[in-house]
Design goal:
Elements: E1 4-5, E2 12-17, H1 19-22, E3 28-34, E4 39-43, E5 47-55, E6 58-62, E7 65-70, E8 84-87, E9 92-97, E10 101-109, E11 117-119, E12 127-129, E13 136-142, E14 153-159, E15 164-165, E16 170-171, E17 184-192, E18 197-203, E19 210-216, E20 220-223, E21 230-231, E22 237-245, E23 254-255, H2 260-266
Antiparallel strand pairs: 1-20, 2-3, 3-10, 4-9, 5-8, 5-10, 6-7, 6-9, 8-11, 12-13, 13-14, 14-22, 15-21, 16-23, 17-20, 17-22, 18-19, 18-21
């Protein structure tokens, strides 16, 4: 499986990952890069959607309502909370760019359990996780502590230059709650400065899957199973937008036994 997806151009819909195209059952991810005045529109069908205004502003109509202009940060590395919108299955949405903008379309099976609603910027606080060179900063958009979606789990992560994230290596590829949950995952990567690169490894403990990818600005990676750590080289900060979904909306994972000692050292009370 090709886990590394390059953007298809620099404008319009540059990413369009469907479950069928990814060879899995739950997560979809689209990305629009629009100039001012350009428009994107989709019907949700049997899938729920969270629109994330990665950067820039757009006038958004969705689920029969006018949500006004969404967006505030003009550069994702401002690290301010994102403006997002939950759009349920069985509806549609339209976004008209009022500035140059980047809009992520995160999707998963919808069950009709939630109404259209704004998510953020209120209630989203940039939070530190980890210590030392494992320090990173999180904007939780729709994790399980928030009852805002039927299936989707969505979060943003900022990894400072020289640091690691999604580390110690962990996996969530078994449907065995509460020990572990099966969650497919996508990573949408950005680099600052934009000419940079970062690394992501996706591997299983038995070695049947082991891919290491040098990701660049706007690249996408897929995590169908296994562990998936990321590293940001000196000089380049890394951002990524995570989308997860599976049979149940819980995030439970297990660390790689070879590296679990790092977690236990840093979290002695865990």
């Amino acid at each position: 499986m090709d886990l590394h997806r390059k953007p298809k151009g620099t404008s319009g819909k540059v990413h369009d990952v469907t479950p069928e195209g990814a060879g899995w059952g739950y997560v979809g991810f689209g990305l629009y890069r629009l100039a001012a005045g350009e428009q994107a529109a989709e019907v949700t069908g049997d899938r729920e959607v969270i629109l994330v205004m990665v950067e820039g502003k757009a006038q958004v109509q969705a689920a029969g309502q006018d949500w006004g202009i969404l967006g505030d940060r003009m550069d994702v590395f401002e690290k301010t909370p994102p403006h997002c919108l939950y759009v349920p299955n069985g509806t549609d949405w339209t976004a008209t760019a009022t500035t140059a903008c980047t809009i992520a379309v995160c999707s998963a099976p919808g069950k009709g359990g939630h109404q259209a609603a704004r998510l953020g910027p209120d209630g989203i606080t940039l939070t530190q996780r980890g210590t030392g060179s494992n320090t990173r900063f999180i904007n939780n958009i729709a994790m399980e502590g928030l009852d805002v979606a039927d299936s989707l789990l969505v979060t943003e992560v900022y990894t400072p230059q020289g640091n690691w994230s999604s580390y110690p290596s962990h996996r969530h590829d078994e449907d065995d709650f509460p020990r572990m949950t099966y969650l497919e995952e996508t990573y949408y990567h950005r680099l600052n400065p934009a000419t940079g690169f970062a690394f992501q490894r996706v591997y299983t403990e038995d070695g049947s899957l082991d891919q290491t990818m040098a990701v660049k600005n706007h690249d996408l990676t897929l995590v169908p199973k296994g562990h998936h750590p990321c590293a940001a080289p000196y000089g380049y900060d890394l951002y990524y937008l995570n989308v997860m979904a599976g049979p149940r909306r819980n995030w439970r994972f297990q660390n790689d036994p070879d590296h679990d000692w790092i977690y236990r050292r840093d979290n002695p009370s865990a």
